[in-house]
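Quick question, first post here. What does this chain look like in 3D?
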Amino acid sequence: MLMHRPASVFATFYTSKAAARKAHQCANSMDMCQSIDISIMSAKRIVELAHDVYFHRYPQLKFDGSLATFLVSACVTLLYDVLDPETTSQYAKQTFHIVEQGIKCIDHIQHIGPTTGKAVSLDIMKAAKDALLSTRSDFLDESLVGDFHWLH
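> Answer (accepted):
Ran it through. Tokens below.
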């Protein structure tokens, strides 16, 4: 997942995934689109698995903070994807629902190093809101803000 993550991060240096793909085709050292897609799918699966385990299969695991790093990484990876100017509101809404599941999981982790899961999840929400407002101010329509209170 790390290599596929560098592709997601690499794409943020350009105005869109398409621009990153075009710039990277010259180097042709790896398939940018495939790496980004794998990174996004992996992040979604990590969140979905953690949510299922924490809230259905084995709720006692919420007292173990070892999954927190993976959840934070997955949420940030998904948020990078939404920053692309080609992202539609519908895709962003679907992605934000998964990020909210990740945040819910992090919220319930009792200890993550010297802090609690709640403090970490608040940091993720603030960073997401700030990033969206700074790069995509035209993107936050009323339906997104209404559905996701942390975008207020």
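The longest helix spans residues 32-57.
The chain has one domain: 44-151.
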